[in-house]
Write a sequence for this structure.
């Protein structure tokens, strides 16, 4: 029998039946597709404050975002965004200071990754907290992994990355690898990075991170300390008259915190092979006078793949570029150098009231160059 030979009523029923079948098939297919959602990055923690945090993750397909969170002793709450996206970011507010929370991320009603925890930032009247410093992780993933795992075991309150997170900032696969290697660290420790020259000033950096101000240079308070992150990477100007210099001077002048810590990529003082080149001489000429004028205590940097501590006009300068990139030997003279070693490492820093204590930590657990700074 041909379709045109069917009676009108029979034909109508057949068409309606086919339409309903197609609708149900579509719904079933849509539900199956939605539940195929999977993590491609994260979750990772950003911009922690005393009462808030940003939790970020990425998925293989566009999906909604949901975050379940709460204190360990309570049932908790949820925050959600119905927007379909592959880059998910939920900002929480109204949290308690320096408090441990548990959390679980969801997309399309699917729990992604394991339940984890985060701790909010220390309030202004809290005397003690810790952070870790690393830099120049780039492309030796096994070495990078050993440093990231070391930091995760140390359990700092947050981490500072001194730039050159990846080999090529424009390569999306490099960023995927970075977040894969640091995954065990970043789902429980908020990361504050600075731009390095290998990020190539690429939008991938800005797309990945959720940072204060313009994300290229910014500041934040933690406990009784003020932290400043600068873009000293060969791409942005930081000389007098530039927007970054004006912002930096105003930011340092406006802070009344007891401690002031600066993070940047290219070091003002170093005996590594990059010391005489690029922006290094400019950084040495321009930035230290500003740091001295406004009471900066410690300056962390990377760029040279080694560890070095210098003391200049009462300010401690630390190069921490041993996060995984090929290591450098001591090459150029640095009259201010107090300690140099070429090794993979992180720097664990504790601020306790009026004393800052720091020590280098190798992935094998060997400690080196303990030092203190007293206000």
């Amino acid at each position: 029998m041909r379709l045109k030979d069917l009676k009108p009523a029979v034909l109508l029923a057949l068409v309606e039946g086919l339409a309903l079948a197609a609708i149900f098939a579509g719904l079933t297919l849509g539900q199956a597709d939605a539940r195929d959602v999977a993590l491609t990055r994260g979750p990772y923690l950003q911009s922690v404050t005393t009462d808030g945090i940003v939790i970020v993750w990425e998925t293989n397909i566009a999906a909604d975002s949901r975050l379940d969170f709460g204190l360990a002793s309570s049932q908790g709450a949820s925050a959600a965004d119905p927007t379909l996206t592959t880059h998910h970011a939920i900002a929480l507010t109204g949290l308690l200071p320096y408090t441990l929370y548990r959390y679980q991320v969801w997309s399309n009603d699917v729990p992604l990754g394991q339940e984890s925890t985060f701790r909010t930032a220390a309030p202004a009247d809290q005397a003690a907290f810790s952070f870790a410093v690393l830099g120049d992780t780039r492309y030796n993933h096994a070495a990078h992994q050993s440093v990231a795992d070391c930091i995760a075991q140390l359990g700092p309150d947050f981490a500072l990355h001194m730039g050159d997170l990846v080999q090529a900032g424009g390569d999306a696969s490099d960023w995927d690898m970075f977040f894969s290697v640091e995954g065990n660290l970043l789902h429980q420790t908020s990361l504050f990075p600075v731009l390095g020259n290998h990020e190539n000033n690429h939008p991938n950096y800005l797309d990945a991170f959720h940072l204060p101000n313009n994300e290229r240079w910014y500041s934040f308070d933690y406990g009784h300390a003020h932290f400043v992150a600068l873009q000293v990477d060969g791409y942005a100007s930081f000389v007098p008259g530039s927007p970054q210099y004006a912002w930096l001077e105003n930011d340092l002048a406006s802070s009344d915190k007891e401690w002031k810590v600066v993070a940047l990529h290219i070091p003002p003082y170093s005996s590594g092979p990059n010391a005489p080149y690029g922006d290094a001489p400019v950084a040495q000429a321009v930035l230290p006078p500003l740091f001295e004028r406004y009471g900066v205590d410690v300056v962390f940097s990377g760029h040279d793949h080694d560890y070095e501590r210098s003391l200049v006009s009462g300010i401690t300068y630390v190069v921490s570029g041993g996060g995984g990139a090929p290591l450098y030997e001591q090459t150029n003279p640095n009259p201010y150098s107090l300690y140099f070693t070429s090794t993979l490492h992180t720097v664990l820093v504790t601020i306790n009231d009026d004393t800052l204590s720091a020590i280098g930590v190798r992935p094998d657990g060997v400690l080196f160059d303990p030092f203190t700074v007293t206000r």
